[in-house]
Write a structure and sequence with these properties.
With 102 residues, the chain is an alpha+beta fold. The protein has 3 helices and 3 strands; from the N terminus they run E-H-H-E-H-E. It has a 3-stranded antiparallel sheet. Helix 1 crosses helix 2. The longest helix has 17 residues. The structure holds L-tyrosinamide. This is ATP-dependent Clp protease adapter protein ClpS.
Amino acid sequence: NEDDDGEAEVVVKTRPKTQRPPLYKVLLLNDDYTPMEFVVHVLERFFGMNHAQAFEIMLTVHKKGLAVVGVFSHEIAETKVTQVMDFARQHQHPLQCTMERE
Ligand code: TYC
């Protein structure tokens, strides 16, 4: 950059990095004992899915062993996991729900 005094000058532009909060995948795991209808109900109740979506995801877990059921902030993901685990335990089903950083 050349201005009126004839001296070269370097203009440095700063590009502020936008900080984004880390996201967490909430995973549902398959097992041999939890009834399919219970899993569908969990997905409707805690993840706001309609019946068709919930049924589809339940079948994916059943066939593949696990599926991501949502992506949330750390606090929300923890709440979902706790809600699902408490609800499964109340109904004496071995359903497992976990979270992992995306
Ligand atoms: N595999 C279970 C059954 O055959 C159904 C099931 C689906 C269980 C999804 C857990 O996360 C799960 N009754």
